[in-house]
Design goal:
Blueprint (H helix, E strand, L loop, with lengths): L1 E6 L5 H14 L3 E6 L7 H5 L17 H11 L22 E3 L2 E5 L11 H14 L6 E6 L5 H4 L8 E6 L3 H17 L3 E8 L4 H7 L6 E6 L2 H9 L8 H10 L7
Parallel strand pairs: 1-5, 1-6, 2-4, 2-5, 6-7, 7-8
Antiparallel strand pairs: 3-4
Helix pairs in contact: 1-9
Bound molecules: adenosine-5'-triphosphate and magnesium ion.
Length: about 260
């Protein structure tokens, strides 16, 4: 199963990615975390791994991704068909992931200078990597995405089985719910929600913002320990009750999604 975490900037996507990854490991799963955020660099700190080199580097000197994509378009090869290779958990190129305690972190690439424009290229690479990655029964993928919805417009959502939108108590998060709902429908990917950084005052407001409250997988209250770990760049632990609840739901113990 491939889960994609999306939501507005700062809503808690990376935090929830890390909490879910840690919890999955506690439950005996092997986890690949795919960092598709081209700007922020801190995910590895809260995951407790080193920073992996950009996956773009793996393709340097190999067949140009752009050529492969162009040829695929001309031949009408369906989007999502692996064009650049296939991988399993064990064959993800050693030099392009960082492992720690059952988690492998892969990052598509980080923009380092003003000449690295062309977001489509990074999303295309992420789609290729995800499309080419075959999982065993005990393996899961969590995709930590860029803020906002551009990656959805570029069809990255097609590469996942479930989309989880993080909603935090901000006007912008609430405003993004209808857009993400529409895009998930268009991509034919099931959409679920987690509410994050809630307080007694904001929880009812956020709950109302979700069109179908049965789609709320769990609520992550505002938590000083999480905030401090994020600030200091320290690994987040497994055992978070809301992360456990999310996993129970998506694993179909209570429902089929
Ligand atoms: N439940 C929570 N309680 C307290 N603080 C939280 C919680 N969830 C996230 N935070 C804090 O909120 C901030 C933003 O979180 P995070 O970086 O995970 O968001 P993001 O959606 O990945 O942001 P970006 O869009 O910039 O990648 C961080 O400082 C993090 O520690
Ligand atoms: Mg993030």
């Amino acid at each position: 199963m491939k889960l994609m975490i999306c939501g507005k900037g700062g809503s808690g996507k990376s935090t929830i990615t890390a909490l879910l990854a840690r919890q999955y490991v506690l439950e005996g799963k092997r986890v690949v975390v795919v960092d598709t955020d081209v700007s922020n660099t801190g995910l590895h700190h809260i995951l407790g791994t080193n920073a992996p080199p950009d996956l773009t580097g793996y393709f340097v000197g190999q067949r140009s991704m752009r050529d492969a994509m162009r040829e695929a378009r001309q031949k009408g090869i369906p989007r999502g068909t692996p064009l650049l290779g296939t991988w399993t958990y064990d064959t993800i190129p050693e030099g392009f992931c960082e492992s720690s305690g059952g988690i492998k972190l892969v990052r598509v690439g980080k923009i380092q200078n003003a000449n690295q424009h062309g977001k489509g290229r990074w999303v295309g690479l992420a789609r290729q990597f995800l499309g080419g990655l075959t999982l065993a029964d005990n393996e899961r993928v969590i995709i930590d995405s860029d803020a906002g919805v551009e990656h959805l417009a570029r069809k990255l959502g097609e590469a996942c089985d479930v989309l989880i939108m993080v909603i935090d108590p901000t006007f912008e998060s609430i405003g993004l719910v209808p857009t993400v709902s529409l895009m998930a429908d268009e991509l034919h990917v099931p959409l679920y929600f987690v509410l994050n950084k809630t307080t007694a005052e904001t929880l009812p407001i956020l709950t109302k913002a979700v069109p179908d409250p049965s789609r709320i997988l769990a609520v992550f209250p505002a938590d000083l320990t999480i905030r401090e770990a994020g600030f200091k760049g320290e690994a987040l632990p497994g055992g978070n009750p809301a992360a456990t609840a999310v996993i129970q739901r998506v694993e179909g113990k209570e429902w089929k999604g």
